[in-house]
Design brief:
The protein contains 18 helices and 13 strands. With 485 residues, the protein is an alpha+beta fold. Among the domains are: 2-109, no CATH class; 117-172 and 214-258, Phosphorylase Kinase, domain 1; 338-420 and 443-480, no CATH class. The radius of gyration is 24 Å and the shape is globular. Residues 138-485 form the Protein kinase domain.
Length: 485
């Protein structure tokens, strides 16, 4: 009997030690793999510098990106958690990441390991204080999908004909993801001192803050209700669908909400092919324009008019519903901008839309973006950097962002300080740009947001000589949404 007890105690101790060492093991795995990928690129940069033929250089870069993509895939697949969030950001920005990375990593999008059902049941019943059979008429054991922080199940409440979605947090995920983020912060500090003259550390600090919020589903429920109310109050018809929360079935780790039927935006092309729609035809083009129109209008209003916005529009959070309606899911990452930053960003939007380098410089100062110039034409490069960072349409001659390139604006204009709050806008714009690239539409969100920015500044008494009739006319033109390629 004592032998069984001692074996049991030993197993329990073994599990506790394993749990304690898990963050250290993850850290070791990250640094070994990150160092391998980084040094691979640095050695390659030296090697390719001796090659004079441009076409050969391009081919060599493509091969290097493919090798790195395989290593990044292996690291993110093995470690999961936070690194699956990194994957979502990479595939959401095909203009920012090499094509080889996007092509390889897109297959990881739906590969977050699901928590076994007994684990889901334990969390759900502990959080809601009732058994599954007491709350739900039916509950699908197999999840609709699993992401880095939680997984979702389709279910139906007792006495209700409509289906709901039940979001349940993975047990023990918070500590592991915080470990991953701190490792990334240390890597960012090194990169900004050696290779990229940009305040990357502030970016990762904002990531830490935002992802920390994602573990509180009550906060997410409040955000979803606030954005739902704002969009439906400020439009005859909301530009995007926002799920309704089942308020009495929300807790810190469980959230029940309205089920919205639709297809993920990444599968839009496959769905069109199934229905015999030519992806390059007029019908497909009209559908894609409607999708981008809806998202752009919703984000313009949220960021510039309200200041409270959904800050995670990666492809996994966007559903396309009947009639090209767009549903925006997952409100774990939201941002509430102070009025000073909201109005400062409205000024920057006007500077980009008007192609005005002087106004861009003024906006940088107002927003608290600290820069040091390493070039003669500082004003033009500052505008170019603003267009690169904060507009969906890249500046002339820029096909994708290459921060290591000597011709890059980030090389010419070092960004020494960057307010953490602005990172959420930067990230949102880049994800919108990624969606536009994926849909094959090149447009400027700054031009489309101009009337909303003017309205925000006018209402704050900061737009001198503004004509109200002119402003209303511009707003109506936005609703027609003229695309400018």
């Amino acid at each position: 009997m004592s032998g069984i007890a001692s074996r049991f105690d030993f197993k329990e101790i073994q599990e506790k030690v394993s749990l304690h060492l898990r963050p250290w093991h993850r850290s070791f795995q990250f640094w070994v793999r990150a160092a391998d990928i980084y040094t691979g690129y640095k050695v390659f940069q030296v090697r390719v510098s001796f090659v004079k033929d441009v076409q050969k250089q391009h081919a060599m870069w493509e091969r290097q990106h493919e090798l790195a993509a395989d290593k990044i895939y292996a690291m993110c697949s093995d470690l999961g958690g936070f690194f699956l969030k990194v994957v979502a950001q990479i595939i959401g920005k095909p203009d920012l990441a090499p094509a080889a990375w996007v092509k390889k990593l897109v297959t990881l999008c739906d590969q977050a390991p699901a928590t076994p059902f007994d684990g889901v049941q334990h969390v759900l019943e502990k959080e809601l204080g009732q058994s599954i059979s007491e709350i739900f008429e039916k509950f699908d054991v197999n999840p609709l999908g699993s992401a880095s922080i939680a997984q979702v199940h389709r279910a139906r409440l007792k006495g209700n004909k409509n289906d709901v979605v039940v979001k349940v947090q993975h047990p023990g995920i918070q500590e592991l993801m915080m470990t991953d983020i701190r490792n990334l912060q240390a890597f960012a500090l090194y990169m900004q001192k050696t290779d990229i003259k940009f305040d990357l550390y502030s970016v990762t600090k904002e990531m830490e803050t935002q992802i920390g919020y994602e573990f509180d589903f009550l906060r997410e429920a409040n955000a979803m209700e606030r954005i739902h109310h704002f969009l439906y109050e400020n439009n005859r018809k909301s530009p995007v669908l926002v799920p309704r929360v089942v308020r009495d079935l929300a807790s810190r780790r469980v959230l029940v909400m309205e089920y919205i039927d639709g297809i993920p935006i990444l599968k839009l092309g496959d769905e069109m092919a199934k229905r015999g729609i030519n992806p390059g035809g007029k019908m497909a083009a009209a559908a894609k324009q409607n999708i981008l129109k809806s998202l752009t209008l919703a984000y313009g209003q949220m960021i510039l008019k309200s200041g409270f916005f959904h800050a995670d529009p990666h492809p996994g959070n966007i559903l396309i519903c009947k009639g090209s309606e767009v549903a925006l899911l997952d409100y774990g990452q939201v941002k509430d901008l102070p009025d000073q930053l909201r109005l400062g960003y409205a000024n920057l939007v006007l500077a980009i839309a008007d192609n005005d380098p002087v106004k861009a410089m003024e906006s940088y100062r107002e927003l608290g973006i600290g820069t040091v110039s390493n070039c003669g034409n500082e004003q033009q490069e500052l505008l170019r950097l603003a267009q690169t960072m904060f507009d969906t349409k890249l500046p002339p001659g820029v096909v994708m962002l290459q921060p290591f390139s000597e011709d890059s604006s980030i090389k010419k204009i070092a960004v020494e300080s960057f307010p953490e709050e602005l990172f959420s806008i930067l990230r949102t714009v880049h994800l919108l740009r990624g969606l536009s690239v994926g849909l094959g539409i090149n447009f400027s969100c700054a031009e489309q947001w101009r009337p909303i920015a003017e309205e925000a500044l006018y209402n704050a008494g900061r737009l001198k000589g503004a004509n109200r009739k002119s402003r209303v006319r511009k707003l109506s033109s936005f609703r027609r949404f003229t695309w400018r390629n």
